Amino acid sequence: MVILASASPRRRDLLALITPEFEVAVSGADESCDIADPRKMVRFLAEKKAASVAQDYPDETVIGADTVVEAGGEVFGKPADFEDARRMLRALSGNVHFVHTGVCVTCGGRKITEAFTTKVFFRPLDPQEIEEYLAQENVMDKAGAYAIQGSAARFVEGIEGCFFNVVGLPVSGLYGMLKKLDQV
């Protein structure tokens, strides 16, 4: 059985594209981290989440994931509040940023961990657009305070890399990891 160590409904939907049969066991891992490099950070946190759940499911395939946004040398996770979300969206406005997702798959004592990156181009946003967006979209559980698959799609001029990585789970990359472990 595949176990997804995530409470994210988006990750559940994306994992269902790979395997329709899986369970969710939310990780209780401490997500604090002092690693500055965002790619190393997401790998570390994905491993923590997978390891936390794998303790209870040692014979199952466990998937942990973590996503952050990197813009202008700053790393954005989930916003702390609406002012933090405004700050993030202002920083992304008219700029290029990177979405990094770390994925860890454990299976019978074996472990594969990778980081996937997608480059995202945002068009300039005026303050009114930011306020309207924050009023209509729940951004508090989204790294960088936006959902590319939601109404923030209108802000995205283009991407380089995996679209699904920006949503929260790099489907093709994860599929490749599962194949390496003979789990699909």
From TrEMBL:
Segments traversing the membrane? none
Q: Which reaction does it catalyse?
A: UTP + H2O = UMP + diphosphate + H(+); dTTP + H2O = dTMP + diphosphate + H(+)
Q: Which UniProt keywords apply?
A: Cytoplasm, Hydrolase, Nucleotide metabolism
EC class, as a word, reads hydrolase
Q: Which CDD domains match?
A: Maf
Recorded hits in InterPro entries, A to Z, give:
ITPase-like_fam, Maf-like
Which Enzyme Commission numbers does its entry carry?
Answer: 3.6.1.9
Where does the record say this protein resides? Cytoplasm
The keyword Thylakoid belongs to this UniProt entry's keyword annotation: no
Catalytic site positions: 66
State the needed cofactors, names only: a divalent metal cation
Could you say which residues are annotated as the site Important for substrate specificity? Answer: 10, 67, 149
What job does this protein perform?
Answer: Nucleoside triphosphate pyrophosphatase that hydrolyzes dTTP and UTP. May have a dual role in cell division arrest and in preventing the incorporation of modified nucleotides into cellular nucleic acids.
Question: Can you tell me which family this protein belongs to?
Answer: Belongs to the Maf family. YhdE subfamily.
What is the protein name stated in its UniProt record? dTTP/UTP pyrophosphatase
Species in which this protein is naturally found: Christensenella tenuis
The root-end lineage is:
Bacteria, Bacillati, Bacillota, Clostridia, Christensenellales
Gene that this polypeptide is encoded by = maf
